[in-house]
Specification:
alpha/beta, Rossmann fold, 52% helix, globular
Length: 143
Amino acid sequence: MAIANILLVDDEVPFVEAMTRRLTKRDVEIHAAYSGEEALEKLAHSDAIEVVILDIKMPGMDGIDTLREIKRRFPLVEVIMLTGHATVESGIEGMKLGAFDYLMKPCDITDLVEKVQAAARKKRDHEEKIIQARIKEITSRRT
């Protein structure tokens, strides 16, 4: 089993291809999207995605707008913001909107994998708590 199932969102095709190769070698399941709109479409059709690695600067729907929509529609999915052109302030804005963390491009692959693992673990923990709460609710109805 992969250490995490992620959606990599960036409008720069060579970057997505290079990161896909590097992360696949580290046992990460990768899905790619090249725009915010495509990312939302892929999330709507896959329950398996745990973590989104999201570029902040993209044409059309930028990373901040995409993050807002991900958190509105898929609140348990964790998001790691990547910024190469933006400032630390945009990373902090992303954190305020619910991003798990942010990294500056180019990022150290080991740091990224560690953040992905931590984000996936957080999502799995939240899902487990929800399942346990539902089980408790169902079993308490029977007594």
